[in-house]
Amino acid sequence: MGLRSAQWYEGQGRNAYIHRAWMRRGVPGDAFTGRPQIAIANTASDLTPCNAHLNEIAQSVKNGVYEAGGIPLELPVVSLGETQVRPTAMLWRNMAAMATEEMLRANPVDGVVLLGGCDKTIPSLLMAAASVDLPAVVVPGGPMLTGTFRGKPLGCGTDVWRLSEEVRAGVLSAADFTRSESAMIRSRGHCNTMGTASTMALVAEALGTVVPGVAGTPAPDSRLLEAAHGTGRLAVEMVAADRRPSTFLTSGSFRNAIVALAAIGGSTNAVVHLLAIAGRLGIELTLADFDRIGSRVPVLADLLPAGRFLMDDFHRAGGLRAVLREVADLLDPEALTVTGKPLVSFLDDAPIWDTEVIRTRAKPLVEHGGIAVLRGNLAPDGALIKPAAASPHLLQHRGPAVVFDSIEDFHARIDDPGLDVDADSVLVLRGCGPKGYPGMPEVANLPLPKKLLEQGVRDMVRVCDGRMSGTAYGTVVLHVAPEAAAGGPLALIRTGDIISLDVKARRIDVDLPDSELAARTPAEAAVAGFATPQRGWERLYVEHVLQADTGADLDFLLGSSGSQVSRESH
Ligand code: FES
Ligand code: MG
């Protein structure tokens, strides 16, 4: 089969001349005759500090592409810095995916190497690659090295939540809190906890889209450059083999991703991202699959936020392959990787080097891991909880709701000494779903009331239609679907209603008869806070975004259009 790029470059006509001539800026003379054009979709950006080093990685990819006979072409794509972008990076995930998909399709490229790191970047790149369906392989940018503060390691994200609670509880001074800031980010790379970035890199490898053994390599590690070089070579091979996402990603690949997600104790955000990627491939994947497959899997990675260690410990201890080897019987033996070989074929030589960091199957961190999917009259289409990050004593709980109509309402009232709240209360926050906020921000891990923190309370049941950071912890019921702004019953709840959570029974309910719920109308203060954007991306997003239980993609972006472009530009 001829190269796709030949549609631009082949022949003696005027258009081929134009396509070639403008690209002759130092490339070899034979660049346009039979050599695969490999795009490097690069999310490097000074405003995405976790990905700022990807230009160096791109250079190694380029070397590998050239070496294998291809032509590397750097393509800067929309980048999303989790900590900087407002109102939430998730609002822009689908935009980044759409822009990357269209630019890959519009340009004369035959294959693509995807460079991502910070939370939304790998998901958006994979969504794009699935929809344009060109040979594609990910190089994850890798986690940063562990910084220390006063002799103790700091987990990015997780320790911000912990230290800020300590300030509010009066056990850490504000000055010391600020002092820890410059110790938090020790090196290039993404968050070093098992947050969303680490999770998505590892899950992308389990899915088959990263060369096995590469994900989790720390960003400053020389071996990452070597892997990037090798991945550049591989991209050229993938074009020759016509190894596109649709040719090797199957429901078995997603099963492997879910097993990995559970065994590493990964972020709840991976659920929305995997659902969205599957939606682009037309592979049927539901919330129920995550519970059914994941709940049989033990958590083996003892990493923050659920455990003790950090990503460079994880890599030193053997990394993802060592984890997967322990649960190899749960994996789909046929699911392939970008290499053309099955994932399981890479697990033979993958020992655990430190059984404190990566537990054996016989001594797991948590017997049954995964992400539990709850249903009930509060979440007819489902909600999630990550039991490993929750408090065991709260997994079955009944308590009166204290309802907040927006995050601003929450901040205004949560520390009010007069707020009627105790340790048994259930904090409910609504208006934070995909449509309502918009963009489904990471706010579900609500800070606890100051007066309760001072009494020593460290966890409470919280319920929200938003997400939480993968670095966060607590008994948090999140991704409630439908969200309040999409007609979900969360909009009907009043302070004082009794909420009951039963994780074992997979239920989240409000103690009200159906007739009472049916008779209620959405709270006016909540409705007043729902987003009503008038123009631009936000308007497009709010009008078309789907709910969390199906991946929060835009309805018209589901599926794939392939890489065909029917018309010339001149
Ligand atoms: Fe970029 Fe955590 S903020 S990975
Ligand atoms: Mg995050």
UniProtKB/TrEMBL annotation:
The cross-references to InterPro entries, in alphabetical order and at most eight, read: Dihydro-acid_dehy_C, ILV_EDD_C, ILV_EDD_N, IlvD/EDD_N, Sugar_Degrad_Dehydratases
Q: Which family does it belong to?
A: Belongs to the IlvD/Edd family.
Q: What is its EC number?
A: 4.2.1.9
**What would be an example GO MF term here?**
dihydroxy-acid dehydratase activity
According to its UniProt entry, one GO biological process term is: branched-chain amino acid biosynthetic process
| A matching Pfam family | ILVD_EDD_N
Every copy of the Dihydroxy-acid/6-phosphogluconate dehydratase N-terminal domain together lies at 35-343
What keywords are assigned to this protein? 2Fe-2S, Amino-acid biosynthesis, Branched-chain amino acid biosynthesis, Iron, Iron-sulfur, Lyase, Metal-binding
Tell me which residues make up the Dihydroxy-acid/6-phosphogluconate dehydratase C-terminal domain. Answer: 356-552
What is the recorded name of this protein?
Dihydroxy-acid dehydratase
The yes or no answer to whether the keyword Nucleotide-binding is present is no
Q: Which Gene3D superfamilies match?
A: IlvD/EDD C-terminal domain-like
Organism per entry:
Amycolatopsis balhimycina DSM 5908
